Every structure is written in structure tokens, then in C-alpha cells.
């Protein structure tokens, strides 16, 4: 999984004619080549890494089944070296997209741990089992 010869070339554009707001693009470059950016270009790092289907990108074609691992490694390395807050936020968002939480996992409001919630007619569970039992025991002792 170690792809030491690769790195990310990140560009940030403000309010260009074609795009509104900030656009951050990430290109995978070959660091082994001594030439500058356009000549050592490998492919664009997509926002969503799709391994199968019609939406498969050049990045997935190039790195195959290992593409998610390569994307995580490149993003983690770029996160350590980047200083711009907007770019760091974009990197964190892309890392979250690579490791999404299951739909029925929530964060407990009492202890902050992740737990599998249950749905009720009025909404969904907000506290984990341990926090609910602590609350119930405290109520019974008073």
C-alpha cells in the first residue's frame, strides 16, 4: 500500500468565472519525476472513490482495488504538510467520505461514544445504554 513516489498537488481558486465560491482541486503527481506540475501529473484525486460501476474514475482504474488505501495515504500525508485552513477542511471532508459511518450510528450526548440507536415514533435514541442506565439508577435512589 505504500506509494512513496506519489503526492498531492493542491490548487485553490477563488470566485473564478466558471465556479462560484472556493474550488479546491487535488491532483496526484509523481514525486520521482524532477519536472514541475504539468509534466509529472498522474491523475485527479476524485471526491468519491468508486471501485465498480459506471462512475469509476481514472484514479480507480489506475490503482485498482487499492485505490481507497492510496487515497487515504495521500490525504493523510497532505494533511500533515498543509497550512491553509480551507484546504485542511477539504482534506478532512474527503477523509470522512472515505470512511463513512453506518446510517444507524449516533454519538451519545452523555459520554460521546458511538452507539447503534433505535428509532421511535417521536424520534431516535440520543443516549447509549450505559448512560440511560446511570440516569435511571440515579432517579431511583432519590
Task: Using brief descriptors, characterize the structure shown.
alpha+beta, two-stranded antiparallel ribbon, 2 domains, single chain
Overview of this protein structure:
This protein is an alpha+beta fold and about 140 residues long. It has two domains: about 5-100, no CATH class; about 105-140, no CATH class. Helix content is about 35%, strand content about 25%. The protein contains four helices and seven strands, in the order βββαααββββα. It has helices at about 60-65, 65-80, 85-100, 130-140; strands at about 5-15, 20-30, 40-45, 105, 115, 120, 125. The strands form three sheets. Strands 1-2-3 form a three-stranded antiparallel beta sheet, with helices on one face. The chain has a two-stranded antiparallel ribbon with strand order 4-5. The protein has a two-stranded antiparallel ribbon with strand order 6-7. Strand 4 (about 105) and strand 5 form a beta hairpin. Helix 2 packs antiparallel against helix 3 (about 85-100). The longest helix is centred in the middle third of the chain and has 15 residues, at about 65-80. The protein is elongated. The mean pLDDT is about 80.
Amino acid at each position: 500500500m505504500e506509494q512513496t513516489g506519489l503526492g498531492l498537488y493542491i490548487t485553490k481558486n477563488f470566485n473564478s468565472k466558471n465556479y462560484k465560491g472556493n474550488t479546491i482541486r487535488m491532483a496526484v503527481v509523481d514525486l520521482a519525476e524532477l519536472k514541475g506540475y504539468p509534466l509529472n501529473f498522474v491523475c485527479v484525486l476524485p471526491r468519491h472513490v468508486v471501485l465498480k460501476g459506471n462512475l469509476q474514475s481514472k484514479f480507480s482504474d489506475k490503482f485498482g482495488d487499492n485505490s481507497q488505501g492510496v487515497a487515504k495515504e495521500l490525504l493523510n500525508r497532505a494533511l500533515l504538510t498543509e497550512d491553509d485552513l480551507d484546504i485542511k477542511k477539504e482534506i478532512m471532508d474527503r477523509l470522512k467520505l472515505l470512511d463513512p459511518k453506518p446510517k444507524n450510528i449516533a454519538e451519545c450526548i452523555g459520554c460521546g461514544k458511538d452507539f447503534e440507536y433505535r428509532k421511535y415514533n417521536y424520534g431516535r435514541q440520543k443516549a447509549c445504554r450505559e448512560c440511560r442506565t446511570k440516569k435511571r439508577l440515579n432517579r431511583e435512589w432519590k
